[in-house]
Amino acid sequence: MPLHIAFLRAINVGGRVVKMDQLRALFEGLGLSKVETFIASGNVIFESPAKAKALETKIAGHLRESLGYEVGVFIRSPAEIAAVAGHQPFPVADLEADGHSLYISFLSSAPAAEAAERLRALRTDLDDFHIHGCEVYWLCRTRISESAVSMAKFERAVGVPGTMRNVTTVKKLAAKYPAAAPRGKRRD
Description:
Layout: E1 3-9, H1 20-28, E2 33-37, E3 43-47, H2 52-67, E4 72-76, H3 78-86, H4 92-96, E5 101-107, H5 113-122, E6 127-132, E7 135-140, H6 151-158, E8 162-166, H7 167-176
Antiparallel strand pairs: 1-3, 1-4, 2-3, 5-7, 5-8, 6-7
């Protein structure tokens, strides 16, 4: 049965606390199997024969009904996570420099060409952006809380819903749930 990795937006931020056992139960209540959570920031791994887009809609509706607020759901396969974790959007020296962090925004769809222009306009000596498929990579050469680019500005520039994770989390997920065989991009 296919393995799916869901990245949830609005879980355990802004005063909205959802315990991981409750989150697992919500996913199991949808008939999803082998449900696991990975750190308490809205990463859920499960098996289902359903397609990613159908699952995103179904899970988002169930979470909205159960939790009382909108939760964005962005699903990727292990092969997609491996590709995202392995993508090299910036020079290695920049990625490994002290104080630099790389964040990855998982999007509902690939951003329009205008998004690339808007992100270019946000670039500074501290912040750089790279679009690759349905993800945006954000290199922050300081702490993200000290960046001149706010999350609101970033989200307006991208123009489609998404949720962000540190590259360390993404690499840990890729290592823990390796792709059985490369299957290419899967946004069905």
